[in-house]
Amino acid sequence: MGKTAAIVKSGTFEAVRLVVLAGVEIPSHRVDGAVTLQCLSGRTVIGFENQEVEIGAGQWLYLEGGTPHWLRGIDDSVIMLTILFSAHEDLV
């Protein structure tokens, strides 16, 4: 299964191999950039607003930047998490 590990991180993009173990919950949080969560193995519940969505191997979910969400492993799971941050322009 391995551990959670950052794969790529730059000023505008981040990719993380996220391991979520069965029964473990990652508390509600938000990130500034648009997020995709692609389940590579296992099953995970993603909760946001007043709903929960279950994703299994091969399924993915998109969240707008700033959307509060939490995750809970149903099975031991591996998620490919990507975050696309807005490019920040320098003020002149």
Please characterize this protein's 3D structure.
The protein contains no helices and 9 strands. The strands form 2 sheets. It has a 5-stranded antiparallel beta sheet with strand order 1-2-9-4-7, with no helix packed on it. A 4-stranded antiparallel beta sheet has the order 3-8-5-6, with no helix packed on it. A hairpin with a 2-residue loop joins strand 5 and strand 6 (51-56). With 92 residues, it is mostly beta strands.
Largest sheet: 5 strands, antiparallel
Mean pLDDT: 93
Could you estimate the helical fraction of the residues in percent?
Answer: under 10%
How would the global form be characterised? Answer: globular
Radius of gyration: 14 Å
What is the count of β-strands? 9
Elements, N to C (H/E): EEEEEEEEE
Q: What are the segments in which pLDDT stays under 50 over at least 5 consecutive residues?
A: none
Strand order of the largest sheet: 1-2-9-4-7
Question: How far is it from the N-terminal to the C-terminal residue, by CA?
Answer: 48 Å
Strand content: over 45%
Quickly give the structural class: mainly beta
Please work out how many helical segments DSSP would assign: 0
